[in-house]
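Journal club side-thread
Mid-discussion, someone asked how the predicted structure for our own chain would compare to the paper's figures. Pasting it here so we can look after the session.
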Amino acid sequence: MNLHSMLIERETVGHPVAVGLIGAGKFGTMFLSQARLTTGMHVAGVADLDVTRVRSQLMTAGWPAESYAATSLADAIKRRATFVTGNAEALIADPRIEVIVEATGVPGAGIHHALKAIENGKHIVMVNVEADALAGPLLARRAKAAGVVYSLAWGDQPALICEHVDWARAAGFKVICAGKGTRYHPAYHQSTPDTLWEILDQYLQIKDRNSINPKMFNSFIDGTKSGIEMTAVCNATGLLPQSDGLGFPPATRFELADVCKPKSEGGTLEKAGVTEVTSSVYRDGRDVPHHLALGTYVVFEGETDYARRCFKEYAMLPDKSGKYAALYRPIHMIGLELGISVASCALRNEPTGAPTGFRSDVAATAKRALKAGEMLDGEGGFCVWGKQTPADVSLERELLPLGLAHNVKLKRDIAQGGALKWSDVAYDPNDSAVKVRREMELAFGRRNAETAAS
């Protein structure tokens, strides 16, 4: 509750938190819009392969042109301005930068930048949840050993869910389930960048289709992003994935405790202590009223009759039995809230969620019948979607992580719905992301999937 006062203190002594942002996409731009207005925080540098885009995004975010006209990082620090560069590694290496925000969305780039940040003694806020799902447990372990913080990004749903779980446990409650809402239907798993408009036009009125990246948006539609984000939550909280991944049960925000509880108790879950994503669409295509499509939630158990009575008295959204209750946040503001993570890392030396084990993975799964010789096109593309899978199952079956299912050639035919294996593709064992992933698998081992903490 004191981050703002700590930021004011840094401002007062003339030493604001110096931040380097890598990646000026939507998330990064939203962060920039608020960071300029945050007392005690200074975005000293922004790195992106497209420097022209950075300047355009800064203008879009409301920055005066003179504020990002610094000629070097030294000039930016001296004048309290911002240096725009295409050289991310130089930004990471500069000793005046305290926190690196990795927002490229590219798994290999995210892993590389995180490792460089750790080597250079920088805290890392990993907006790039794709990289976290691929190798986050190893990156967090490396950061801890180096005495720096590796953190999930506040404002994005995984970090908010981690906060829900921490709140419930710190209050003495047993967490039954945690997750988020989304728009889902089983047919969406076959969605491609060409067909996603049939879905998007039902609930989003995007007049300028050129203003969005169809492949990125499609990863939200086809179920991939949900698998990635719930993997991040499991690896950070100790919650576990269900054996067959996410079920996406339809639910209103007032039904969360009834739907997201074990089947043995009348709910939809395989067991207690798992993640689940609720859908805002019924299986017959009707919209769910009062849905949680942009929000997050936690379902917890009242283990005494007194607590259960309090659930009812204080309108804690109990299930019909009164045994379970839910707390939810209706929205998330992604980059607009990211400064919370930056401040927490720099001023408290605490992450807003970070991997503590390798419990969940995201397996590349065929959207359609795939033929030998095809090139996979990764997240949100035409070939595969990402399915949440228990980590020990993924390792035992040698399943191909979604984060590595890009620009690799298939060696054999795969049936629609089939899970791809490492042996199914011609991957490069010397690729840096492949090497880090393999190192993580060896470091944690397939028996690392612990039971969820109570």
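Post-session note: The radius of gyration is 22 Å.
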